[in-house]
Amino acid sequence: MQRFIMSSLLVFAAAATYSQVDTICSIPQRWIQENLRERTSQYLVFFQVKEKPKQAGVFIWSRQLRVQESTIEVEQKWYSSDSASYRYLLSKVDRKSFLPVYHKTISPRTGTEAYNFTSTKIMGADSVKNNTKTTFELDAKQPLNWELDLETISLLNLKAGKRFAIFFYHPGARNSPAFYEYKVTGSEVITSFEGIKIDCWKLRIEYSPQYYSIFYISKKGREIIKMEEDFGKGVRYKVLLPGNITVR
Description:
- The protein has 248 residues and is mainly beta.
- It is globular, with a radius of gyration of 18 Å.
- The protein has a 16-stranded mixed beta sheet that branches.
- It has helices spanning 29-35, 149-153, and strands at 22-24, 39-49, 57-67, 71-80, 87-94, 100-107, 111-117, 121-124, 137-139, 144-145, 163-169, 178-191, 197-206, 212-218, 224-230, 234-240.
């Protein structure tokens, strides 16, 4: 998730208070084995500021998931007409728990940011060249990487009425990791870019009573087919493309 929405999210002070909520501090290995798919997914991302309805930002996000011997790697490339908006992200998570061990983001605006994760600490990676976050340090229980929200929620045991308190953290944020509630609000058959009908679970997170995101996850393929979001100042949509565009 992008940083501009983080301050508006509802934080769970204690997930145990919510007896019907499944607390997710890591992903069970069985869910990973059953639901993980090696693949490259590309999304058309449409962004619009409400005060400027005639302007819109359009992006292509490419997300490649690879399974290694002990880790799972997700490489992201975000493209737009403005080269200053390009972002490259490389995330490595443990293959058995999906907990992060390393994350790096490179962009023209912020330079290189790289972090190592342990069970008790998040630290700037001092071995990465030109890392602007070498002095970063945060004492915290190892969280799930919020930059991998699409991959993470695809692994959940989704069923009607299920609610999940996910222990998420955006790499580099000064605020500590926290629980955020996602709930299955039903299912819906939506039409893909190719005109195919796809039966999807609807998973919702509320930032406030008015602002939210809804993810449409295919029941069969375990992919995010669409996401729609209202975060107050703007709206954003992500739609899975039918085929991969060759980009570098």
